[in-house]
Amino acid sequence: MFFTIICAVLTSFMLVFLFALRYVAEGRLLFRLRLAIFLMDAVLAAVFLWRDAPYHIGVPLVGNVTIFVFMAQIFGALLLLLAALFRFLWRRMLRAPYDPGRRRVLARGALLPALGAGAALYGGTLGRQSVVEHFYDIPMKGLVADCTLAQISDIHLGAYFDGQALEALLQQVAARRPELLVITGDLFDDMAQNEEAAQILGRHVDDFPLGITFILGNHEYYRNVDRTLSFLGRTRVRFLRNSSVRLVNGLYLAGTDYPMDRAHFAELKRAYARAAMREVPAEAPSVLLAHHPEFIDDGAELGAKLTLTGHTHGSQFGLFGLPLFPVFKYTRGFVRIGESLGYVHVGNGSWFPFRFGCPPEIAYFRLRAEEAKA
Ligand SMILES: [Fe+2]
Question: Can you tell me the mean pLDDT for 341-366?
């Protein structure tokens, strides 16, 4: 369903771009341009759907080129329409008389699709590859000692994020020497690479004094979750599924399963959160790990001091640090509910390899030991 929506959106934008080409050229040149672009789109879309559908299994080059071409058209269409709207308003302001013979073509209009192509090239390369590190300081009562917890999420192993990239990411996290690494789901997303990825994680456990903890996301279920868990079971990676653990520094770490039954999402979510927090004392320092950000509400209600989530990818498009498409209740960054904090990680990978204004991140939470009030 989601994939169908994406295809419909891309097709609509392609048509809008073909329409907006009227501001770049006219006459025979316009016809030829439209025909050439339409044919190129049709061929790329057919190859993409054949090779990469329904998610990201296929040849990375095909996906990258297709996404570049379509995104260039989306950015190009938006820029052309904005420029045409601006010119229309400008002429209205100057009260220019209507002249049917006036040229539709924008002066230097060809620059705008070129700018769009530049933005598309950025989003498909640097925009999705340059990892940003965020550092947060969170006081937490009852901790025996300070500890830093690093979070990565939504790696989405596959054609656009392989074992080598995972290794590099883990090395980058480990270099900051956090005590603990947590991975909040949607890592094991490729049947051909899941076993290798589990081994890579296993080799890095000793980089973190309090280990590596993993919880499930929805994509683990799409790629034979039991098979993945059997690979993980051969490592010392800590796996939490509606369960919790007390670490040596007094921190309770709880983790939920992912509620896959959409019809009963709310009830399951609540039940999973309760099960995860069951053995966590009310006043204890605690971190709840959950893939879906709506668990933040449950975490707050059940007394988790911090709930770490992912899943949204921060909408993959942003402006001034804010998500451009905030379609989730919580899409990116911190949420405060009473005394409890929630965090939505923007993810490290994606099945749609494109990010603009929403770079992948490593989030470091320094949990500061604070005396409980007498
Ligand atoms: Fe997800």
Answer: 95
CB 209 within 8 A of CB 179: yes
What is the rounded distance in angstroms from the CA atom of residue 125 to the CA atom of residue 121? Answer: 6
Ligand 1 centroid vs 19 CA: distance in angstroms? 35
Q: How far is the CA of 209 from the centre of ligand 1 (A)?
A: 28
Q: How confident is the model at residue 99 (pLDDT cuts 50, 70, 90)?
A: low
| Ligand 1 centroid distance, CA of 309 (Å) | 10
CB 188 within 8 Å of CB 221: no
Q: Domain 133-370 adopts which CATH fold? A: Purple Acid Phosphatase; chain A, domain 2 (3.60.21)
Q: What is the pLDDT of residue 98?
A: 66
pLDDT band at 2 (very low <50, low <70, confident <90, very high): low
Asked if 267 and 228 count as a contact pair (C-beta separation under 8 A), the reply is no
* CA of 148 relative to ligand 1 center, distance in Å: 25
Map tokens 């990469």 to a residue: 52
9, 350, 18: which is closest to 153 by C-alpha?
A: 350
In the chain, domain spans: 2-124, 133-370
Residue 111 Cα to ligand 1 middle (Å):
38
CA of 218 to the centre of ligand 1 (A): 5
Ligand 1 mean position to 186 CA, how many Å? Answer: 5
**Over 50: is that where the pLDDT of 148 sits?**
yes
Maximum separation of any 2 CA atoms in the chain, in Å? 83
26-35 residue pLDDT tens: 889 999 999 9
Q: What is the pLDDT of residues 310-347, one digit of tens each?
A: 999 999 999 888 898 888 999 999 999 999 999 999 99
CB 344 within 8 A of CB 309: yes
Which residue do the tokens 């100057």 mark?
Answer: 94
